[in-house]
Amino acid sequence: MTDYDVLRVFCGPNGGYGNELGVVRDGSVLPGRDARQQLAAELGFSETVFVDDPERGVIDIYTPTLRLPFAGHPCVGAAWLLDVPELVTPAGVVGVRLDGEFSWIEARAEWAPARTLRQYASAAEVDALPVPPKGERSEKGAPDEGGEWIYAWAWEDEAAGRVRARAFPGRDDGIEEDEATGAAALLLTDRLGRALNITQGLGSQILTAPQPHGWIEVGGRVRLER
Prior knowledge:
Layout: E1 5-11, E2 19-24, H1 33-43, E3 48-53, E4 58-62, E5 67-68, H2 72-82, E6 86-89, E7 92-99, E8 102-108, E9 116-119, H3 123-128, E10 150-157, E11 162-168, H4 182-192, E12 196-200, E13 204-210, E14 215-224
Parallel strand pairs: 2-3, 9-10, 11-12
Antiparallel strand pairs: 1-2, 1-14, 3-4, 4-5, 6-7, 7-8, 8-14, 10-11, 12-13, 13-14
Helix pairs in contact: 2-4
């Protein structure tokens, strides 16, 4: 079996929760896309990162079913693990800074995959949502390739920028709900135009902040699981 680390990204204040991330530190052991996709499917994490150049921060990101040019929690996790000033992804160069217990990346909303940002009236409504059946994940009543990717959110405290969110990827890869999703948080920040403190899933925390010239910072706590 290929060696890999497991991180938890966007952990809560007590260090719990967060989204698991697989990281293959030596990407040269699996240089081909097909082999990487197969391993990502076998591991079953929402994303797996392959590090192609640890000094330059060159990374390659896969879900169990497809390759992504950019993704939020893999970049935050890789930034923490590699401790480099930037990451190089197919979407572009991602800025990195480490600030105490938080690891931050700086990226652009147009790099994030399409998401349906669906607002609800209260955090309680978001908490009560069932996982959408696959056949109902599309707003048109029929799923597309794997179904619609829904980011359900509501204000917990609008004045303070506190948000409650849950994520339903709609993919046919066994991941019915994503615990913490940096790319969706980035898109929501771009839409609202303000800094956010997001509680997602069971208790993960994602922080965001708009920056000049269309850049957005996304940050959170990272822990080495194994």
